Amino acid sequence: YPKIEFFAPGFGANNDPVRGYVLVFFVSLGCIIIGELNMVSSLLSNFFVAAYALINFSVFHASITKSPGWRPSFKYYNPWVSLVGTLLCVGVMFMMDWMTALLTFLIIAILYLYIFYRKPEANWGSSAQAQVFVSALKGLQNLTETQDHVKNYRPKLLVLCGNPAQRPPLVDFANLITKKLSLLICAHVVTEPGSKNLAILKESTQNWLNDHKIKGFYTVVESGSWEEGAKSCMTLAGLGKLSPNTILMGFKSDWINDISGLQEYFNVLYTAFDHNLGIAILRVKGGLDFSEHVTAEETA
């Protein structure tokens, strides 16, 4: 949260936030100095009960999402008991003081929405992440079981662009077609196996797509030839109904001087037709390959 970074640093072997402890001490001391605890007792009690309610709900949510990191060892544990505990805590909050309970919920909602929209660079391994995975998996399974209909047709693109950072016009054109509402996969064929660290390449390229606000995915394969690698991408990319139905490629402008490459280019087109995939070829003045410009900027 902003303006309280001063109290965040930890000290000692356990990395204790001593400054935060001091802050809490003075806040508590201020409540005591008031001399009339009844003025703050309702609010403090609601905060405590709200904390218990959130803990119970977190336990219940982690259980129903089947989070691998949540493995309770208590013999008689039941997630529905946790849900009942949550409801009881909420009921007690309103029984103590309904206005204070509403104020407590408002404060919790503000803090949650702030974190949700601020998206801090922190990974807490929350049950919400497990819920995202479960929802995506169930949604994909439901999509696979749903019959296709022409009214719901969407172009799902497999873009044979290599490294997207080196061919931004091709990726931008694909992004305009999908309008961030359909599948976009950028495929990269590395023809020199072992020449690149694929894990680092995947992470850095996916970050490039996110930085340029392109809603898509990046996949990379290693193969002895571009033709075989492109064929592998066509057969392996996607899951179930969430698989490409259209191939987007750049126009091969050097076809006169690269006959063997031209043969591979047409073989990939024939393979796409054999797999009942649509074909789109983009040709722009000056070509699509910006690799020389990217290299120049990196070395500048």
Blueprint (SSEs and pairs):
Elements: H1 18-33, H2 38-64, H3 79-96, H4 98-118, H5 127-145, E1 157-160, H6 168-178, E2 184-190, H7 198-211, E3 217-222, H8 226-236, E4 246-250, H9 259-274, E5 278-282, H10 291-299
Parallel strand pairs: 1-2, 1-4, 2-3, 4-5
Helix pairs in contact: 2-3, 2-4, 3-4, 8-9
Outline:
The protein is α/β, with parallel strands linked by helices.
**What is the residue-averaged pLDDT?**
85
Task: Count the E strands.
Answer: 5
Q: Main beta sheet, described?
A: 5 strands, parallel
The general outline is: elongated
Which percent band covers the strand fraction?
A: 5-15%
Gyration radius (Cα, Å) is 28 Å
Q: What is the chain-wise order of helices and strands?
A: HHHHHEHEHEHEHEH
Identify the strand order in the major beta sheet: 3-2-1-4-5
Structural class: alpha/beta
Residue share in helices? Answer: 40-55%
N- to C-terminal distance: 38 Å
Oligomer: single chain
Poorly predicted runs are 295-300
Q: How many helical elements?
A: 10
For the structure shown, list the relevant keywords:
300 residues; disordered C terminus; alpha/beta; single chain
Describe what you observe in this structure.
- The protein has 300 residues and is of the alpha/beta class.
- 54% of the residues lie in helices and 9% in strands.
- The protein has helices spanning 18-33, 38-64, 79-96, 98-118, 127-145, 168-178, 198-211, 226-236, 259-274, 291-299, and strands at residues 157-160, 184-190, 217-222, 246-250, 278-282.
- The protein has a 5-stranded parallel β-sheet with strand order 3-2-1-4-5, with helices on both faces.
- Strand 2, helix 7 and strand 3 form a beta-alpha-beta unit.
- Helix 2 packs antiparallel against helix 3, helix 2 crosses helix 4 and helix 3 (79-96) packs across helix 4 (98-118).
